[in-house]
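Moderator note: this is an archived Q&A kept for reference. The question asked for a predicted structure of one protein chain; the sequence and the answer are reproduced below.
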Amino acid sequence: MKKIALASLLLQSALAFAQPAPKPYGATPSAAQLNWHKLEMYCIIHYGVDTYTDKEWGFGDEDPKLINPAKFDAAQIVQAAKDGGFKGIIVVAKHHDGLCLWPTKTTEHNITKATWKNGKGDMVKEYQLACEKLGMQLGLYCSPWDRNNAFYGKPEYLNIYQQQLRELYSNYGKLFISWHDGANGGDGYYGGANEARKIDRTTYYDWTNTWAITRKMQPGATLFGDVGPDVRWVGNEEGHAGETSWATYTPKASQPGKEPANGEVMYELGIEGTRGGKYWMPAECDVPFRPGWFYHASQDGMAKSPYTLLDLYYKSVGRGAALDLGLSPNRDGVIDADDVAKLKAFGELLKQTFAVNLAKDATITASNIRGKNSKLYGTKFLTDNDNFSYWATDDKVNTPTLTLSFKKSVSFNVIQLRENIKLGQRIEEVAVDAYQNGEWKQVANATSIGSKRLIRLPQNITASQVRLRIVKSPVSIALSDFGLYKEPVHVTAPAISKSRSGEVTISTDAPVSNIYYTLDGSTPTKASTPYSKPFVLTDGGIVKAIAVDGNQTSEAANVKFGLNKENWKLLNAANNEAAQAIDENYRSVWSTLQKDTSAAFKPTELAVDMGGAPTISTFTYLPRQDKKTEGIVDRYTFYVSDNGTDWKEAAKGEFSNIKAHPVEQEIKLNAPIKARYFKFRADHVISGNGVAVAEIGVRSK
């Protein structure tokens, strides 16, 4: 009997150590996608003729000679990204205006016609060399929409576009991503035709065969687009994924009967992805560093602060997606000094926050270990900095617990979790408890985990024990990381607002010792004007402010205001409902939207009597801010008048990219104009029958 028992014990032990790895669950990432996940953050670089025309999208008729940067330095641009903690860059080699920043053989509209380097330069090559020198990965974007090319919209253009991709794939080294967007068709120069051209977005680019070029020539590159096929657009240009964010996705077309394609997809589904989706297609969260994607001098000093970037990091990378930050070199061909400083401060903040994983000092106990095999699937792999070594449970153990025990209490405010995504995205819900005052207290919960999940706590948690509970999972667990971190203490930048009468208020979420502000564009210090009560800013301008509490100083808040609207009146009394467009409240909306969406949109006007005759340098338009697109204006005309009867056109154009990036639009005049009256005309809207306008404004400086 003893021999039988011993044999049984040895057999059980052998079976335990022979326990196979968990089977993959659902779609899993390719080698190229694994590399993409490892990057976490990269930057997309927008520079071209729009840098000099002050536009976001060029029309296609711009002269390449505009490109003549006095100090172009690819290494400076790449280094700025690297200092921010970014691991790669995407070069916009061709934007919608059609100008190629490399010496292509496919069109004359390229860098060889630029003034820069007497037409002998190649900006893409310089970026490649800078990336190789600085250890950064390179990606490229060649816009499929080309507003310059005479053949766009015709069958001949497909060959041109594919040949441009072949040139880029052949001559600029190994790429980590080939980036494509959904901007397809519309009005343009088109070789002088000056007309609108429409395409069938689902078929025109022959994506199956076009992407096959990438697969063959750059097998290590992921393909980004509205529908991937490797990386999906998250569905907004705000830099964040959904609170729940699945790496798996099944794209759906926005129109019945259509196949999903770039520009033809229900993009709002990309925010969260699809649980159990057909493809491993994680989200990229793209967002410009400044208000616009291209450089505009009027946006100097308005780049996102380091803590704003950190917040976006939590909401993108910390939700299993990637952060793609838009950098915009200035007219000299370098990143502005203030932008460089903010990037570097963000990089230091990241290092400081994640320098020490407090969990490494804990004894970690699991309620279950797969096959009782600690050598292969034990808790030691949770803190070893390897994304693919992991703690695993037996097949039928889907809701286990982990307990971290410390010799003395630790204080933390960030929790990090990571799954071994080679085995798919498995966990659906977790909760974290802290042992405080003799009992367990839940301090956090989350849904999707995937490649990385960061839970940023609203306050510091101090405890001697921490417990992770897997609340829901359809299969066994394969968790590769459990981390506890301490984000540095900081004071939040103050909020700055202005009333219709021009009264400026500066406030903070929590009490602070002092607030200081400036009105001359300089960065505030403790020597600046102290804020004690609201003040009137008659002619508008820039207000910057900092909050100070003890030895802590916040980042500077920075807001640009237009002229006061206290004396503004609608010129036509019948338009009283339009007063919400001039009430200095972005939450209120002037709407003329009709339920009948089949009727054709008719141009809609708003005329204003400003009560005086200020000097107008800029008009502003703020679209609705409720994340809906109906009624957002994308083509406009502004008029001015001295008497309210005879009108003169002051500005006419398009709000480029406003559907994806609905921020305040600035319409700068070629020369300042003095006028008492102005009129805004909505010539076209993205969708819907009517307009939905949050705010119209005027700036004099």
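Archived answer notes: The chain has a mean pLDDT of 94.
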